[in-house]
Design goal:
The structure holds two protein chains of two kinds. By secondary structure, chain A is an alpha/beta fold. Chain A has a single domain, classed as 3-Layer(aba) Sandwich (Rossmann fold), CATH 3.40.50.280. Helices cover 43% and strands 17% of the residues of chain A. Chain A is built from five helices and five strands. Chain A has a five-stranded parallel sheet with strand order 2-1-3-4-5, sandwiched between helices. The longest helix of chain A has 14 residues. Chain A is globular and about 35 Å long. The two termini of chain A are 21 Å apart. By secondary structure, chain B is of the alpha/beta class. Chain B has one domain: TIM Barrel (Alpha-Beta Barrel), CATH 3.20.20. Chain B contains 21 helices and ten strands. In chain B, strands 1-10-9-8-7 form a five-stranded parallel sheet. In chain B, strands 2-3-4-5-6 form a five-stranded parallel sheet. Classes of the chains: A alpha/beta, B alpha/beta. Chains A and B meet through helix 1 and helix 3 of A and helix 3 and helix 17 of B.
């Protein structure tokens, strides 16, 4: 039996242009057989959530290195709730201190990856998250 | 091998062994720690602290909104003000940043690229207000827009108008600030984005050639501006390869400047550079290991003949460094300079078979990359084709896969892990920095002469549509306290903005 490939949006929110991590993750997920949509740089939370809806992804991966996660991630979660897209799982990677990672998880983020996480762990986590995801559109449940 | 015949001595063309005969015997490298955070006030006190600790130059880190040409109160600045550097939205912030620091005496390096001409104008006005003689002040503006398109991606405008701004600063420098380095051609960020040492070397030198081409096209004589072009390289972990990279860079630049452009002044041939240890090599796990990594990388930079050096702090995989960590990083340089004896001999690896072979291989490889980019029509065409970007992406993914497979060991990360690690103290920037900066902007806009602002911005806009050098109208706009965001908006209107095609 073949199931449809997992669809993931890899996004780079905020003003920061350091995209090395985001691109490596995007490649690794693609090499693991997933369909990866990479947004490119400087995406606002609105642009990210709209792209997730249009691309009908199960998982959104956010790469944030600048310390702006405390402002950006809550806004993404809020928009997902507003658009009744809570079936989409959000994973955050970047320079996220431990206490901030706990706070993000309290807000509904499925997982947070800090520097040094292996690609294998991340790929496995995205697979698990996609298994829990019910999709981008409310009626796809 | 016949070392004496084949390898010219330090201080002799093509300077493979160093640009000075005596190197550090005459003068040590400049210890220049890159810093900036929270507010201009907080950053100013960190600068005074660093100077009191024996640091010999300053290096300004700006926050992301400043790097992207937005004021602190812009919606895109949300969550970013003061996080990665000092926020500077207007001349007022620049005055605070250098309060009590005599710009006539201290050399200052500024890491700013897309809005570099604007920030430099602010700096020059502060120096002028302090009574400094602009023909005597010295420092370095990073102002290397090409590596932004290639690697760091902090661009605002399309490549051609951006190159025009860079060329304006070079031209203005020749006439008004002959001791200031208007561009620091940077491989650092190319390497941090995941390139190999060879790619860092090749793309950086090819960027340098592009700036030279534009300045000559502007009508400048190569020997009038080339002596003020400076370079900035990464100091990464592969010890001998790094030393060879600096040696190959000097040899290539000297040869290219003489043979490709006919430069006659030997100062045009000499590649001077700043080095910074590799931020991307720092690990979150077992952060004290970072002190050792940094010391080895710094040693490679010194053995490779750097003119100035930044050593990273052990906590920088987490955050901007705290005062304790940044002091230890500076002490690392001081131990190398005053205790280790490595500063006593220029290019001690000259003549070593291994290092000479690496130098020669890097030189050959870089020449090949330069030829490929020349054939594409130059670096701007190559960037528009996504060529250097794709080369770096591929290299960074391959490096990561080697870490995954354990072929590349990162101590504490994929080998020799410790199960229970104690957290370290890190610097946190709170929201008050942003609130304060927004309040200052509100007050500034209420008290400045807004008619002057409108007039100077209007003059700037008209000049931007011509081929005139934009530094004079920029200086006027800055003097009227027009903000960085207002000035960059004028350029956004006239030049448009740039977005790269996302690709993985």
């Amino acid at each position: 039996m073949t199931s449809a490939p997992i669809r993931v949006l890899v996004a780079k929110p905020g003003l920061d242009g350091h995209d090395r991590g985001a691109k490596i993750i995007a490649r690794a997920l693609r090499d693991a057989g997933m369909e990866v949509i990479y947004t490119g740089l400087r995406q606002t939370p609105e642009m990210i959530v709209n792209a997730a809806l249009q691309e009908d992804v199960q998982v959104i991966g956010l790469s944030i290195l600048s310390g702006a996660h405390g402002a950006i991630v809550p806004r993404v979660m809020e928009l997902l709730r507003e658009k009744e897209m809570t079936g989409v799982q959000v994973i955050v990677g970047g320079i996220i201190p431990d206490e901030d990672a706990l706070e993000l998880k309290r807000q509904g983020v499925a997982a947070v990856f800090q520097p040094g996480a292996s690609l294998e762990t991340i790929v496995t986590c995205v697979r698990q998250a996609a298994g829990l995801a019910t999709g981008a559109t409310p009626d796809s449940q | 091998m016949g070392i004496e015949e084949n390898i010219p001595q330090p201080g002799q063309f093509p300077y493979t062994r160093g640009i000075h005969k005596q190197m550090y015997r005459d003068r040590l490298w400049t210890m220049r720690q890159f810093s900036g955070f929270s507010t201009p006030e907080e950053t100013n006190s960190r600068y005074r602290y660093l100077l009191a600790q024996g640091q010999t130059g300053l290096s300004v880190a700006f926050d992301l909104p400043t790097l992207m040409g937005y004021d602190a109160d812009h919606e895109y600045s949300l969550g970013e003000v003061g996080k990665c550097g000092a926020p500077v939205s207007s001349l007022e912030d620049m005055e605070t940043l250098f309060d009590g620091i005599p710009l006539a005496d201290v050399t200052v390096s500024m890491t700013i690229n897309s809005p570099a001409a604007v920030i430099w104008a602010m700096y020059l006005v502060v120096a002028e207000k302090q009574g400094a003689d602009l023909t005597k002040i010295s420092g370095t503006l990073q102002n290397d827009i090409l590596k932004e398109y290639i690697a760091q991606k902090e661009y605002i405008f399309p490549p051609r108008p951006s190159m025009r701004l860079v060329t304006d600063t070079i031209e203005y420098g020749v006439k008004c600030t002959p001791r200031f380095n208007p561009v620091s051609i940077s491989g650092y960020h190319i390497r941090e984005a995941g390139s190999t040492a060879l790619q860092e070397l090749a793309f950086t030198l090819r960027d340098g050639l592009e700036y030279v081409d534009w300045a000559i096209e502007r009508g400048l004589n190569v020997d009038d501006f080339a002596p003020r072009l400076s370079f900035f390289f990464n100091a990464h972990s592969d010890f001998f390869e790094e030393i060879a990279k600096y040696r190959a860079a000097r040899k290539l630049w000297a040869t290219l400047m003489r043979d490709r452009y006919g430069a006659k002044d030997e100062r045009s041939w000499k590649l001077r550079f700043h080095a910074q240890t590799a931020g991307a090599s720092l690990t979150w796990q077992q952060p004290y290991n970072n002190v050792v990594r940094t010391a080895l990388q710094a040693m490679a930079a010194v053995l490779g003949g750097t003119q100035s050096l930044h050593t990273n702090s052990l906590d920088e995989a987490y955050a901007l460094p705290n005062e304790h960590a940044v002091t230890l990083a500076l002490r690392t340089q001081q131990v190398l300079a005053y205790e280790s004896g490595i500063a006593a001999v220029p290019d001690p690896f000259g003549g070593s078979y291994h290092v000479e072979k690496l130098t020669s291989d890097l030189e050959t490889g870089a020449r090949e990359y330069i030829r490929v980019i020349d054939d594409m029509g130059g670096m701007i065409a190559a960037i528009e084709n996504g060529y250097p970007q794709a080369e770096i992406s591929r290299a960074s993914y391959e490096f990561q896969l080697k870490i995954e497979r354990g072929e590349q060991v990162i101590v504490g990360v994929n080998k020799f892990q410790s199960p229970d690690e104690k957290p370290i103290d890190t610097l946190r920037i709170d929201q008050r920095a942003s609130d304060q900066q927004c309040e200052k902007l509100r007050r500034l806009k209420a008290t400045r002469n807004n008619e002057d602002v409108v007039r100077t911005l209007d003059t700037l806009k008209r000049a931007a549509g011509t081929k005139d050098n934009l530094m004079p109208p920029l200086l006027d706009a800055v003097r009227s306290y027009a903000t960085l965001g207002e000035i960059c908006d004028v350029f956004r209107d006239v030049f448009g903005t740039w977005e790269e095609r996302p690709s993985i």
